[in-house]
Amino acid sequence: MLANKQRRKNHFRKDIAKKRVKTVQFFVFCLKTAACLIAVTLISLILIFCHDCFTQSDCFSAKHIEITGQHRLLSKQIIKTAQIKPEINILSINLLLARKRLIAHPWIKEAEIQRELPNRISIKITEHKPFAVVDIGRRFLVNEQGEIFKEIKNSDPKNLPIISGLQFSDISLCSMDQSTPFNAAIKALKLKKKNKFSLLNWKEQKIYADREMGITLSGFDRVKAVKLGYDNYSNKYDRLKRVLYQLERRYGFSKIDMIDMRNLNRIVVRLEKIEPPTAESHKEV
Length: 285
Description:
By secondary structure, the protein is of the alpha/beta class. It has helices at residues 2-55, 75-82, 95-103, 180-194, 233-251; strands at residues 64-68, 108-116, 120-127, 130-135, 139-143, 148-151, 162-164, 202-210, 214-220, 223-229, 256-260, 268-271. The protein folds into two domains: 59-127, Ubiquitin-like (UB roll) (Roll), CATH 3.10.20.310; 130-271, 3-Layer(aba) Sandwich (Rossmann fold).
């Protein structure tokens, strides 16, 4: 009987000892957690303090803002678009956000912005170069890569080639998704600018893009229309030069209604009809 009582008493004491150990461990865990939280809080406060010191210090005020790459836009327009205030602390500028603001401008194709310690901001932009006007009821500017970048306004460049005959479904803001007629018009225009015709003056620079018939150039001083169709534009321009030279040498042509270059094996030249003089045209005044 006594042995049994003694065993129960020892068992009870062991349970109490385990509870004490667990309590001590829990207390130590709480102390460590509290210490970590206090340390994190102190470090955060120190970092915030340092951040405020640096971003509010006059030592890092933007004394110089260097802008390169602009041709059409003024420096003050670029600074305003990027929302960089005078004497702003350069460490407080969100460079990624400022770049996004710049690229959102219709004339800016690409932009880079960098800090140069202690007090300089460097901005480098690449502007869109207007290559032609796309007329689909509304007129848009397009660059040489075939990217439509803005709707045309009165202040925009004049005397650009005009591409017509396209529909809204033929164009896209991405140059990779343009239609076949659109891409053909851009390609024909690029090669035309590399091929100068001494016998023709392209005054109005009109390009008509037809989904079935291809590309037609018009607005020349001595030829009303040149039908190019699709593809092989380089060879067609070379052949056109030779055709114009032969016409000038043999006939001294003044006006041609149409030259059809769609099939290089069968080039068609249609002279402009000359109306016969009427009796009224000889009437003395």
